[in-house]
Amino acid sequence: MDAFLMGAAEVLSLTTLTMMFFGAIAGIVSAAIPGFTVTMAIVLTLPLTFALPPLQGVAVMLSVYVGGYTGGLISAALLGIPGTPSALATTFDAYPMARKGQPGRALSLGVWASFFGTLISTLVLIVAAPPLAIFAVRLGPWEYFSLIVFALTIVASLVGHSLQRGLIAALIGLAIATIGADPMMGRPRFDMGIDALRAGLPFLVVLIGIYAISQLASEVEDPNSIKRGEKLVKGEIKFDNFAVMREVLMRPVNLIRSSMVGVAVGALPGAGGSIANLIAYDQAKRASKTPEEFGKGTPEGVIASEAGNSATAGGGMIPMISLGIPGSAVDAILLAALMVHGISIGPRLIMDNPDLVYGMFIAMAVSSLMMLVVCLVSMRAFLRVAEVPKWVIVPVVLVCCIVGTFALNNRITDLYLLLAIGVVGYALKALDYPLAPLVLAVILGPIAETNLRRALMTQDDWTLFFTRPVSLIFLVAALLSIAWAVRGILKSRANAGSQPTDVKDT
What we know:
Layout: H1 2-11, H2 14-32, H3 38-45, H4 54-78, H5 90-99, H6 103-137, H7 141-152, H8 163-177, E1 180-181, E2 188-189, H9 203-219, H10 223-227, H11 241-249, H12 252-266, H13 273-287, H14 299-323, H15 329-340, H16 349-352, H17 354-383, H18 390-409, H19 413-430, H20 436-458, H21 464-467, H22 469-498, H23 501-505
Helix pairs in contact: 1-17, 2-3, 2-4, 2-17, 3-4, 4-5, 4-6, 4-14, 4-15, 4-17, 5-6, 5-14, 6-11, 6-12, 6-14, 6-17, 7-20, 7-22, 8-20, 9-18, 9-19, 12-13, 12-14, 13-14
């Protein structure tokens, strides 16, 4: 109790709360700009915390962290461009909802889902950090590979109207992921002698090119709409935040399930929000009574994605606090901040510095509240983006995408790659190929390859993938996932075929 009160006293001081408030603003704004990720915002914040006490510095970084996971929602809902990789699945329903004239509802749904997802993950972090961390660390490359195989089966639910086109898009994504240096040996491959391809295609460059460039290009196809000053999103910006809050709470199963998915994925080192939001979205779609509404602007999809990605913040801290193992790149930066202050990292962290650990728990909850306040107060300002004409917003967003791409590695060649990938994304979109399977394959492909090769290098017995219990569970879940998706596709085709001709025409 003494440690808890000491941590609370420092976090709840006026100085710390003020800095956390500005940290939340910085995280939200940086993540809302396509190309500027949460990791980049945390890296820029780290030097500013060196002169602060350890808990105060970590609290400020946590506010940036939590705010960043929500900020990606803004551009995903209003522009159809995920501000961060963890907001990818949010685009599927938030943007269609905004295009239907409900941009305020789309943003508010995501903000409240993020808030409750972070709170749920914080509670799990406090109660179950040690056992979950021990379980996560005991997983080997066999289990990680099987987990990624299970995650890849989500492609089956993201293929859109054509299974063949969806699988082709996923194969293109896997091919893109193999370009560049070998992840295990560092040898170049598939670069075709082009210098720009030797380092591979950075994931953020692919994400921005596939979604942002193709989306912006499609918005300017009609020159008459530009001349008329049409907007990207049409509709009223009026909304009732507390009515939306009740709407989120009226779906407790979806909210809790998605949050627990985020906690579980976040506790696995190297997974992160980009996987959690897709898995949470997929599970929500499978459990829904109206799965055909997903991708058309259903609130269930927005709640699942945002609760899932925000809950990874608490989940990622489970192995970090319990065992000193970062769950993501952001958690690694938090560990670096603690080490700079001379704090030992590892299983004894909670024993040697209980006030610091309890203070981090409190800071997570306070950060989620800060994020909620900032978003609710500034939401009407963000919604003004919906009133900006296309001829203004398109070039501004394009410049932000270019700046974000260059800031990633400070390489001019990335800009050429961005242009090339943007053309490919625009062509695929024009041919009605779904883009989500491609991006998902680019995310998961390198992780799957690395763990597969690591497992076989450790022991060349491939039967271990089936004899290790956790690995077998993931593989069985993958088979069930595929069977469920195929059943859904066949059922929808059968329903479409049984409709009368006049209904189809209508």
